[in-house]
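hi! just following up on the protien thing from before. the input was this:
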Amino acid sequence: MALLAVITEAHAEEIGRGRILLDSLQAVELQTIVQATLDVSVPLEELVQGVDYVELAEALSSQLGDEPKPELAETVFREIIPDPTNRYQSFGLTDVQQAYLLGRDPSYELGNVPAAFYAEVAAVDLDVDRLEAALRAMIARHDMLRAVIQPDGRQQVLASVPDYVISRLDLRDLIQEAARSELGRIRNEMTGQSSVHSWPLFEVRATCLDDRRTRVHISVDLLITDGTSFARLVHELSARIADPEQSLPELELTFRDYQLAVERMEEGPRYARARDYWRRRLDELPPAPQLPLAKPMGAVHEPRFSRRSFQLSAEQWCSLRQRAAQRGLTPSMVLMCAYSEVLGEWSSSARFLLNVTVNNRLPLHPQVDELLGDFTALTLVEVDTSVGSS
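and the predicted 3d structure came back as:
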């Protein structure tokens, strides 16, 4: 039936498998499809407890009464009409891209720092020439790997760029301590400030450690990619190295097409409702956590950020997910709660506001998930640790 087509457009392979446990992103995606197509809200806590798609379709049918028109199934995925004619015309930054750009400005507190992904891959028996060829193929396929920021604050995809050359360094003749020092120098160089007005907004280097081991350094500016895009970039690079002859379907959709479609959505009633909601809340929202500082943030002229991590075992993570789902919670909700509790212990104010990044790839076209770009959005979470309730 049409309704089943609507809610399973992005999950067609799951039909008939009974109740399926969704992760946070899958649950939000399904919720978005139903909301955008049918204008029906499905509580997220119901989706994360497990979804049987046929049962969900039947439940929604009973709510809607009459069967939705068949064309509704196409609505969510036909919002974007690709515009290849204007592919290389400039277009505006997203709100988050603007924030990243401002964050490079030293006149802001904790500014003077780029927002970028930096990763190192320990490779064995890597053919760097193959890696270079795979990277060039990706640059040709993905527009945002050819993007730059113009001086007027708009972004533009370049129609053509020179063949990318991976910088290579041979450390085989150095003693271990000297090699470590060189690796540290590379990290500092690749995580420092760089121009966003000239191509490329990414960098890949290869460091030969011995006859078999190569360290691959990858830095990508968040202006042109997000976490999901970075994972796709690494996955596609690996696949192309394994099979240089593979051919992928041509991308008719571009990030520019997507961004302009999102801007058009801001003229509609759904955006107006969301805007009005946040405007009503402005006067009542609390400030950021009031944390103890070693010095005023304005006194830090060259900020450096360190990542702190802790890893749960596979068994612990599986147990956490299951217990969260039983309570109608996603793992992200549980981790956010733990994070809030820790901040609450240090904050001088029990009530504070957190700015949370969310993956916001709206299902406006079948190829949206294949694009590289910054699809990040922000939402606000109000925390009150003084309540004392669960």
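Residues 68-77 have pLDDT under 50 and may be disordered.
The first strand starts at residue 116 and ends at 124.
cheers
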